[in-house]
């Protein structure tokens, strides 16, 4: 720092590429607004690291004060380097290089900066109107007149010859603003082309009055492709945020403090980011809540990140670049006076501040929506950045109630610490319930009323209690089917009954606590998310207590919906066999195999029984009417979820066609395997399948211990572990009347023919069948199919 030039910004602490292109854009903006001439030239050295003379660099470093304890070993290392050319598997002979320094070595950049410091001082000495700048091997010159710019270019050509380097004539560019005489500088007799828009260290700059330069579409497309690829990562919520924040916005918003981006492109990029962050295709999610409450929006949301970036860099330049204070003051004053349209960083920062409701006041000061004065000059960087983020969030929250009725109340602000207490807890052992809580906060819970309104359901009535339309109000606070879960939070439930009508919808329906809320405080017992994953957080301002509002029912109700949606479109990573969705796909395949088996053997079974599904004449009708009818049975109890163990017994002598017996056994087993509880996904009845169901060789267990051949085929179902004991198979010689086949239709008839192994299911309470024609309730068994009429003897 003692010998480096002011315009050098590479490999220095506290300096980056922003110091180059932001300063250049500010100079252009000032020249356009003040109507003063400005000339500039950009050049580039070809193979700079490979062409630098080593002897000259070591002598220069010694003159600048580099310690011999560093310089002598460094020089000895370069003297001992031997190099070879390699072509495929062949190596050339050794040779020693007298020019060039190693790229990637931290001492190499020190030697390069020392050499470019000589160039900077030489250009400054050529004319007092020139301002050289450089970033590594990319030099540039700004000047007030064309003659001063030409003298700086001539000094650069002389520097090129003395250091045995070569300037790229094709990469050189120049510009002039408000010129008294539009003359392009020449490089070795070749004029540098003048442009209206140029790229400086990757940032697009406009150097003419009018609109700012636009970010290239290729960069935004690359950022969207990164977001799409990140969606396939098998990562949970927090690591997924980290990956997206490191890959997407830094790519898309680089240089946007001096360049403009189309609003349409930012919206498309936001959709890709939200889809990658919330990889399940959950409809009706609110991006405004996701990217302000559940995730850091300034690192994921393109619009938020753009506003945050421009205001953050403005304060950084004011605090770390005192040499720019005079230019910033002049441009700030002219911007407040409504000067000429000019591209520049201050104009973009003013637009970003107005987008969140801030109005510029004195130089470096703003007035927010509440009338408070915000002085960026005296605030520390962290506090200023927090102030900007809070202003962005408040502006977004003010627009949410106009789009989401269930989130009315967030326009005054959200108590983020209270609302997200359960999500930010690190002590819970049940992290699987956190997605449910995020869905509730993001207002993405589907109800029957909503499905009915968009035409996806035939009725809005609650499918759990059948008492009222299912709305969020009904689901969380009124549905009798979830009274047991709601009773665990009696204190919060009593508070809601006493004053719930005065709670804002965002609190009562989505669990989002607005700022300044006077809702009562209720303590959550324990930290387990299983008990509080879907609870509304009710906390007074400044309190550290989170509260239950009695809506933990979502752990039961919403999880089943979420599971069903996940099963419809499962995510399976090709190299991640242990992922839960991988097993769901296997279960779906099993279910499809069962359906295929039914279609394959249903027709042969009907033909073998030689009984039509409907009576064709009076004699068949009388036979059906003479069959005993089922008596009403008590309401069946829910069958615990689990894998049912099936034992198929078959008599070898009673069956004349062993193949058909195996086929009938498979059909019977499939019928029993469809017994599910209401919380099980209707798309995967195969969740209760056991291994080997589809294997016809299970008839190896069909023989009795005594080898008797008079026992009819009986499909015996054992309940899961902890359930009721299974009834024993019927004794040899017993006779069973036929059940209706699982594929529906009329009963299959009276007694079985001697040549056929009949199949039936002995059921004992609570697995007994219901009377034919009654609506299905509770667990689904044989009695759930139309026309079921079974009598057990």
TrEMBL record:
* Domain Reverse transcriptase stretches: 6-204
Highest taxon, organism lineage: Eukaryota
Instruction: Enumerate the residue ranges of region (Disordered).
Output: 562-665
Instruction: List membrane-spanning regions.
Output: none
Question: From start to end residue, where is composition biased (Polar residues)?
Answer: 648-665
Q: Name one Pfam family in it.
A: RVT_1
Q: Compositionally biased, Low complexity: which spans?
A: 584-630
**Which InterPro entries would you find in this protein's record?**
RT_dom
Q: What is this protein called?
A: Reverse transcriptase domain-containing protein
């Amino acid at each position: 720092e003692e010998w480096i030039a002011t315009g050098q910004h590479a490999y220095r602490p506290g300096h980056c590429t922003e110091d180059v292109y932001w300063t250049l854009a500010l100079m252009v903006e000032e020249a356009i607004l003040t109507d003063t001439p400005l000339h500039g030239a950009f050049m580039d050295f070809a193979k700079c690291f490979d062409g630098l003379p080593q002897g000259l660099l070591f002598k220069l470093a010694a003159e600048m004060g580099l310690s011999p304890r560093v310089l002598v070993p460094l020089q000895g290392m370069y003297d001992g380097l031997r190099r070879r050319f390699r072509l495929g598997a062949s190596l050339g002979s050794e040779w020693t290089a007298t020019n060039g320094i190693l790229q990637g070595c931290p001492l190499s950049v020190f030697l390069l900066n020392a050499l470019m410091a000589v160039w900077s001082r030489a250009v400054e000495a050529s004319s007092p109107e020139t301002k050289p700048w450089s970033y590594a091997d990319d030099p540039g010159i700004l000047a007030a007149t064309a003659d001063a710019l030409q003298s700086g270019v001539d000094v650069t050509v002389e520097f090129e010859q003395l250091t045995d380097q070569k300037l790229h004539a094709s990469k050189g560019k120049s510009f002039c603003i408000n010129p008294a005489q539009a003359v392009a500088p020449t490089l070795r007799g070749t004029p540098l082309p003048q442009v209206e828009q140029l790229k400086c260290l990757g940032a697009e700059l406009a150097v003419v009055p009018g609109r700012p330069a636009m970010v290239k579409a290729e960069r935004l497309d690359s950022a969207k492709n990164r977001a799409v690829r990140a969606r396939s990562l098998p990562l949970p919520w927090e690591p997924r945020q980290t990956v997206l924040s490191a890959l997407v916005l830094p790519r898309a918003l680089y240089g946007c403090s001096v360049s403009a981006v189309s609003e349409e492109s930012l919206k498309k990029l936001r959709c890709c980011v939200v889809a990658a962050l919330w990889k399940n295709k959950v409809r009706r999610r609110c991006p405004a809540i996701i990217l302000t409450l559940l995730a850091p929006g300034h690192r994921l949301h393109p619009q938020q990140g753009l506003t945050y970036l421009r205001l953050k860099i403005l304060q950084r330049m004011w605090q770390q670049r005192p040499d720019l204070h005079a230019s910033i003051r002049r441009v700030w004053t002219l911007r407040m006076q409504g000067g000429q349209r000019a591209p520049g960083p201050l104009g973009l920062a003013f637009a970003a501040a107005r987008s969140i409701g801030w109005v510029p006041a004195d130089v470096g000061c703003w007035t927010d929506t509440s009338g408070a004065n915000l002085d960026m000059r005296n605030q520390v960087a962290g506090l200023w950045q927090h102030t900007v983020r809070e202003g962005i969030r408040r502006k977004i929250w003010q627009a949410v109630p106009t789009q989401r009725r269930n989130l009315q109340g967030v326009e005054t602000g959200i108590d983020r610490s209270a609302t997200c207490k359960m999500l930010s807890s690190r002590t819970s052992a049940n992290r699987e319930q956190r997605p449910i809580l995020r869905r509730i906060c993001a207002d993405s819970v589907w109800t029957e009323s909503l499905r009915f309104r968009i035409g996806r359901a035939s009725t809005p009535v609650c499918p759990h209690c059948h008492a009222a339309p299912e709305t969020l109000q009904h689901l969380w606070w009124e549905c009798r089917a979830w009274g047991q879960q709601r009773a665990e939070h009696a204190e919060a439930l009593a508070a809601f009954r006493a004053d719930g009508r005065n709670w804002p919808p965002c609190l009562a329906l989505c669990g989002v606590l607005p700022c300044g809320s006077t809702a009562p405080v209720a303590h959550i017992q324990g930290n387990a998310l299983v008990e509080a994953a879907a609870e509304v957080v009710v906390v007074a301002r400044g309190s550290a207590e989170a509260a239950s509002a009695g809506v933990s029912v979502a752990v039961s109700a919403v999880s089943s919906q979420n599971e069903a949606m996940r099963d419809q479109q499962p995510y399976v990573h090709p190299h991640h066999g242990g992922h839960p969705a991988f097993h769901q796909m296997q279960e779906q395949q099993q279910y499809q195999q069962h359906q295929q088996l039914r279609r394959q053997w249903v027709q042969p079974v009907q033909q073998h029984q030689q009984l039509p599904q409907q009576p064709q004449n009076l004699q068949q009708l009388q036979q059906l009417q003479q069959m005993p009818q089922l008596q009403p049975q008590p309401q069946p109890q829910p069958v615990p979820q689990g894998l049912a163990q099936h034992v198929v017994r078959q008599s070898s002598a009673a069956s004349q066609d062993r193949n058909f017996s195996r086929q009938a056994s498979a059909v019977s087993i499939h019928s029993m395997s469809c017994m599910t509880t209401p919380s099980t996904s209707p798309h995967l009845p195969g969740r209760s399948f056991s291994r080997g169901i589809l294997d016809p060789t299970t008839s190896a267990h069909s023989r009795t211990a005594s080898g008797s051949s008079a026992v009819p085929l009986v499909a015996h179902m054992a309940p899961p572990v902890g359930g009721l004991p299974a009834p024993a198979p019927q004794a040899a010689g017993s006779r069973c009347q036929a059940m209706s086949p699982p594929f529906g239709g009329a009963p299959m008839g009276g007694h079985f023919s001697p040549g056929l192994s009949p199949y039936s299911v002995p059921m004992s309470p609570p697995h007994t069948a219901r009377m034919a024609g009654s609506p299905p309730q509770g667990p689904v068994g044989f009695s759930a199919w139309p026309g079921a009429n079974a009598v057990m003897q």
